[in-house]
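Ticket #4471: complex job returned nothing on first submit. Input attached below:
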Amino acid sequence: MAMKIGSNEFNERVGQGIDDAFMRGAVSGAQDSMGVRRSNAAEELGNWEDWRSHGEEIRQHVLEHLDYYLEQLSKNVAELGGHVFFAETKEEANEYIRGIAQKKQAKKIVKAKSMVTEEIGLNAVLEEEGCKVIETDLGEYILQVDDHDPPSHIVVPALHKNKEQIRDVFKEKLGYKKTSKPEELALHAREMLREEYMTADIGITGCNFAVAESGSISLVTNEGNADLVTALPKTQITVMGMERIVPTFEEMEVLVSLLTRSAVGQKLTSYISVLTGPREAQDADGPEEFHLVIVDNGRSDILGGEFQSILQCIRCAACINVCPVYRHIGGHSYGSIYSGPIGAVLSPLLGGYDEYKELPYASTLCGACTEVCPVKIPLHDLLHKHREVIVEKEGKAPISEKLLMKSFGIGAASPMLYKFGTKFAPTALNPYTNGESISKGPGPMKAWTDIREFPAPNKERFRDWFKNRKKEENAHGRDDSESR
Amino acid sequence: MAGTIQNQDKFLNKIASRLGRERISSPVERPDWKYRPQDEVLKNASQDELVDVLKKQCANIHTDFYETEKKDLPEVLEQIVSSYGGGPVITWKDDRYAQWGLESLFKKEWPKNNIEVREWDFENGEESIIKAESANAAITISEITLAESGTTVLFSDKDKGRMVSFLPATYIALVPKSSLVPRITQAAQKMREMQQETGRVPSCINFITGPSNSADIELNLVVGVHGPIKASYILINDL
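Support reply: We reran it on our side without changes. The output follows.
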């Protein structure tokens, strides 16, 4: 599975999302519970705005000095005996890793925390080599067992599945015989995966934050799977997006604290592992060989431009958990492993406007995402910038948007037409109106009303109401401003 | 043996060029950050206040908290292990167990009661991993303990295998009271000092906060996924 998921058009994906009642219930429930946990964890600190500002200044400093910190990191990793490979494209990254698998004659590979490996489509390459590739995060494992069902949330990838569906998948694929209780399902996965860890040839991980000064990488999990993946196989390969780096342990801890609070409202997750080089001379566990693959894959094109701040992202999903659009359409609708507001900004940059031109429109620009971002990425501004680029430079606005813009342009440019339009609206929309709302709108309104209701226009226009009110006030000789 | 670096220059040159400047060739000073909110957390808290914070946090992370004097440590440990269903027990190879009065429990009382005590042995690495995998309880020592988050910090080395804390079904950490600090900030500072003084940090530093868990199935919390299913911390007051 690469960054792109599914082959349906955006509108079809949205339609499927909206029709999936369980998914929508799960998403809104998840948003509510994770949103509350995040906001409690933030409030508890008392000075959350300072934390955000600190996160922002660290991330901005790193991006401005990125070449320096990556050079320092690679020098330190090599001094510890690790191997560093800089991959400008996903193909370069995949070929390097394929080469290691061949050299090690790897049969079995276990993986953990590996969003960037999804982005570059690594699993398919390794499977081509005849390797059995096993995702070990419980959510990702469930999806993999279910014939590679795509993830729908950055932090909770199998959010769209209920426990009965998971039981059925385990029954069919893994010979599972117990109930749909989450505890029993998880225990079964634990037993299946234990065996895999113990016998894997290579462990592959992502990287939450690399530490330039010490040559370390850090991994943040609740399950502990990253620890088993990095301790048991003889070879470890860590794949990191090139921007996931900090100067020292002191900045690492700040970003880890921001990440765990923002993602799940935890002070820290159950496991945070800081790994420095391969195992030491007499160690009996940990990898004998360590490879760090640093991936560009379109990121450098974002640097130095108006979207640079998106590279501050620490993948906490706080923006996803508050997004009203994600709430209604779910993760699969975005057609990318990166969903929600972060996905709507990042996917067009990494995957191109041709593929993802609709995503910046899957937003109400309400700014809830920007408000919760722990590193202060102005997400809704970036979404707006995308729209400008799409409409002005690329001329690729989705068709209904174009019509809407055009008709609004004509209507708003002429006072007469505008007057007519607003006056006519209640009548024109009458056939679609159900009491106070519109649930099946025509033309450009359809995309909106497929998802939610649109308030019906008032019978009386604001302009008319205001005029009449003024008349009444004058008649009673009262100045409204005094009563405020 | 030094490792290798491939494709670095072209890659980094592109980054510099996108940033509109030459490659940075002289060291970048670590900035004097404008914000430092991390220093405010539990600032000026006494060691006893940190104990209270840790105790409360343990309830949030599904971890049993015990407090004892050194002289009663064997008894407390014995009770916890039997509440976990007994052995086999696995430990590091570490002199501190004996210094803290556990030698007789490990070498006499437990074996007598059919509780096998296994010690990590790097010279028989494969066997040590298998022994850890089939152990019921791990007994580790927290080097730094973070009050705010309820986190124990373990440093790996040849005698302190990484897998001792992960593979067994249950996790027990011995926590000297003197190891308590307000939060992860102080641990990061210590790690940095260690790195600057000795040129490196242990190959694996684990921050462990309670048992392994997951909320991946309908956001239901399941405690005990890949790592330990239960966890206990024993705070030793006079250490």
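Residues 406-417, 477-484 of chain A have pLDDT under 50 and may be disordered. Closing as resolved unless it happens again.
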